[in-house]
Design brief:
The complex is a heterodimer. Chain A is mostly beta strands. In chain A, strand 5 and strand 6 form a beta hairpin. Chain B is globular. The chains are: A mainly beta, B mainly beta.
Amino acid sequence: QVQLQQSGPGLVKPSETLSLTCTVSGVSMRTYYWDWIRQPPGKGLEWIGSIYYSGTASYDPSLKSRVTISIDKSKNQFSLMLTSVTAADTAMYYCASRWIGGGNQFDFWGQGTLLTVSS
Amino acid sequence: DIQMTQSPSSLSASVGDRVTITCRASQNINNYLNWYQQKPGKAPKLLMYAATSLQGGVPSRFSGSRSGTAFTLTISSLQPEDFATYYCQQTYGTPVTFGPGTKVDIK
């Protein structure tokens, strides 16, 4: 069973860079895609991007210029960096997994990290 | 991007009620439609995938169907633990997109 444990700060100042990490256990990182999804307060879910074991990443076009998702296979981790944050980036951030043999559904989720952008 | 809409945006129901939530895609997405349940303060939980397949461990009172670009999630007999917000998601196109959610609360 996949387990995802998120870590990272909950408060970032405007114009700074958000950095979150998701540690994977219980499964080989080769067999899943690894995703980041966010949810602004009181709103719906927004896909940010994903990465595969090979390092190939894809991003939502609206965030692509500010987002980098990376993978550290030696630590069984993948990470999200979001630059030049504003109040609009305040949200709960989730990491999630998609089995490579499935239909792209997010079958396992991290616990979530509430990120607040404020000075 | 493929747009997803859901109706209703909220509903009130009683334990034992049959509940139906509809999700519509802005274009054909075949069966690339998933349903998630989210409770306050928790991460979403996958309920159904590929429109009609029940995720392991999910009670059989949940079911899904498709008619063209309209998809339905049905709860045959609402239980206390089912009060939550439900989201549909399409994975046919990139980026994947979610519906705005349907909140099911207690009548």
